[in-house]
Every structure is written in C-alpha cells, then in structure tokens.
Amino acid sequence: MGALPEWKDRLLEFAYTLYVEGMCECGRPKSECRNDANRGLYEVADVTCHAQAAVEEYTGQEKFKPDPGQRFYATELDEELITRRTFAPLT
User: How far apart are CA 70 and CA 72, in angstroms?
Assistant: First the structure.
C-alpha cells in the first residue's frame, strides 16, 4: 500500500483535531458530559494506576527537585517482574 496523498493526510489531521477538541478532560465527549440535561446521570468510580503511583512516590520524596523540563514515567524493572505481571479486565 502506497503513501496517502497529501489531502488525505490533511483530512485525517482535521478529523483528529475535531475529535480532540470535542473531548472533555474526563475522556467523554463535551456534548455529553457538559450537557445540563445529563446532570445527575454519572457516578464516581476510582482505580489505582500502579505505574503512576510509582512515579508519584518517586517524585513526592522529600527534597525532590527535578531539572527544568524533566519528565518521569514508569518502566518495568526486570524480566522476572514482567513475567509476574497480571492483566485484569477493565471495569
């Protein structure tokens, strides 16, 4: 399959821009979650992202001072831990 013509690239970019701009920070479409008619239709659930928890634990240490622009992300430690990793269905 060849490369997409430039106009298809631009069309895809435009469609993606419309999609992103239409989404709320909560991950739902703004037209749904910001509509007053939907007030009271949502419940709150929580989950724990253990990868993010590791980053927050590391960056929350006393005297922690990152360099300007420095970002942190979770990585897997070693092969043994990777084989122990468990996947659960999302709820």
Answer: 7
Measured distance CA(77)–CA(29) in Å, rounded: 36
Q: Residue written as tokens 């659930």?
A: 45
Question: Which tens digit of pLDDT belongs to each residue from 5-60?
Answer: 899 999 999 999 999 999 999 999 999 999 999 999 999 999 999 889 999 999 99
Integer Cα distance of 30 and 38 in angstroms: 11
